[in-house]
Amino acid sequence: MTKETGWNLENSYAELPDKFYSIIDPNPVDGPKLVVLNESVATSLGLNVDLLRQQDGVEVFAGNKLPEGSSSLAQAYAGHQFGYFNMLGDGRALMVGEQITSGGKRCDIQLKGSGRTPYSRGGDGRAALGPMLREYIISEAMHALGVPTTRSLAVVTTGESIMRETALPGAIMTRVASSHLRVGTFEFASKWGTIDELQELADYSLKRHYPEVKFDGNQYLNLLKKVIEQQAYLISKWQLVGFIHGVMNTDNMTISGETIDYGPCAFMDKYDPLTVFSSIDREGRYAFANQPRIAGWNLARYAETLLPLLHEEQEKAVELAQEVLYGFSDLYHANYFRGMRSKLGLYNEEKEDQSLVEELLSLMAHYKADYTNTFRSLTLGEKECSALFETEDFKKWFNKWEERKARQSESKEESMQLMRNNNPAIIPRNHRVEEAIGAAENGDYSVLERLHHVLSMPYDYLPEQEEYTQLPPETEGPYRTFCGT
Ligand code: AMP
Ligand code: MG
């Protein structure tokens, strides 16, 4: 049966030394029910949607039954959480295997919320429906926005309640990732493994994510360079769409450069670089404007783990690592300003572009303008839609921008097209995400499905998306998100 479903699993990760994982059996649940299935992800994985919806398919998503070829395990990793080092590991996740698609792509299939593992510490290994749906919607929206990310294949409810502040419906999300290798995996190897084991992990990562790196010269320095490049690209994408991850611990930073672990994340409405949504981030460590700097900090932790592989003399190894790490900031800025120029319809590059961008952002901050809608209005040529646009400051900026556009050879139409391709008409606004989750918790999944649908084409500027551009009603306090663990 599972063969017809299209499962085609391997587990190359299990070929790493034993200490990198624990083989675990799934923890069955009482009454699994499929509540969301991402048909386009299923199809791209080569899976049969109709069979996935049947009892046998659902049992797989619930961890009640393993698909043919699966050897389930929990991965070991460590990580710096809010700056402090801890031993972690998959405390509530089960790796089912790596699906090999017909195109030869290798994707991790992981159940999140699947029960206790040897790494669970005090936790129950379970997840609540709300946070799993949140990850589902936001990760899929990120994908559609063109931001590298893990994907979401399905969510099942377990039929069991879990205890948090109150009893909540339990759920399991099936996550698809190009791998779950993290900075934290290397921190684990560096702390508790031998140099040979660390090297095996590095070789495995290179083979899996950066096969173009030749195994000669200093391939581990090249691995560090690649991860830095991918992260510089990823974080620039976050900043360009106004995404706040919320918990950028080193265990939540991938070697592949995909966004992972959508806990307390959220998109910014009004532009404020100091925005923090997460209730546990009291110091604002992971505030919007800090994300690039924190990525640099995390990458320095990554580089430290690689030192023994970079050079046999520690001093030389540090020198090599530092040189590459210093490059992160320039790479990030280049990506970011390239993206910003596209958001402003600029094809070529001029020296003053950076200040043009920064002036706009500071006006947005000063006049508390909505981040996404400001760029959307500029794209659509709407002039009277926000308080910002009425101000003299803005009008001055606008004239400068018009003059700047006139200095490029591309036509107005081409400039508009570039803006449409880079400024989303919609993002998953917090109040709409909450609304969809609330309805789903009461058994109505239509709100969520519609939200997922409109978010899947953010650059299409469709009439049906318009209502989703509305801002939330003014609330008394700032919006808060919770880890939901
Ligand atoms: P996260 O904040 O989701 O990145 O998780 C940090 C660590 O806590 C990871 O090792 C998770 O596996 C673990 N964890 C989170 N929630 C639970 C839970 N309910 N039960 C056991 N472990 C958990
Ligand atoms: Mg995590």
- Count of DSSP helices? 17
Shape: globular
Order of helices and strands: HEEEHHHEEEEEEHEEHHHEEHHHHHHHHH
The parts where pLDDT drops under 50 for at least 5 residues are none
Quick summary:
ATP binds at residues 89, 91-92, 112, 124-125, 175, 182, 261. Keywords: ATP-binding, Magnesium, Manganese, Metal-binding, Nucleotide-binding, Nucleotidyltransferase, Transferase. The chain has 485 residues and is an alpha+beta fold.
Tags for this model:
485 residues, alpha+beta, 7-stranded antiparallel sheet, two-stranded antiparallel ribbon, 14% strand, binds magnesium ion
Q: If you had to describe this structure to a student in words, what would you say it looks like?
A:
With 485 residues, this protein is an alpha+beta fold. Among the domains are: 2-177, no CATH class; 183-336, no CATH class. 44% of the residues lie in helices and 14% in strands. It is built from 17 helices and 13 strands. It has helices spanning 2-5, 39-44, 49-53, 55-62, 129-145, 183-192, 195-209, 219-241, 291-310, 314-343, 353-366, 371-380, 387-390, 392-406, 412-422, 430-441, 446-455, and strands at residues 9-10, 21-23, 33-37, 73-75, 78-81, 84-87, 93-100, 106-112, 127-128, 151-163, 167-177, 243-244, 266-267. The strands form four sheets. Strands 1, 3, 7, 8, 9, 10 and 11 form a seven-stranded antiparallel β-sheet that branches. Strands 2-4 form a two-stranded antiparallel sheet. A hairpin with a 2-residue loop joins strand 5 and strand 6 (84-87). Helix 9 packs antiparallel against helix 10 (314-343) and helix 11 (353-366) runs antiparallel to helix 14 (392-406). It starts with a helix and ends in a 30-residue tail after the last helix. The model has no long low-confidence stretch (mean pLDDT 96). It binds adenosine monophosphate and magnesium ion. Its cofactor is Mg(2+); Mn(2+). It is an enzyme of class 2 (transferase). This is Protein nucleotidyltransferase YdiU.
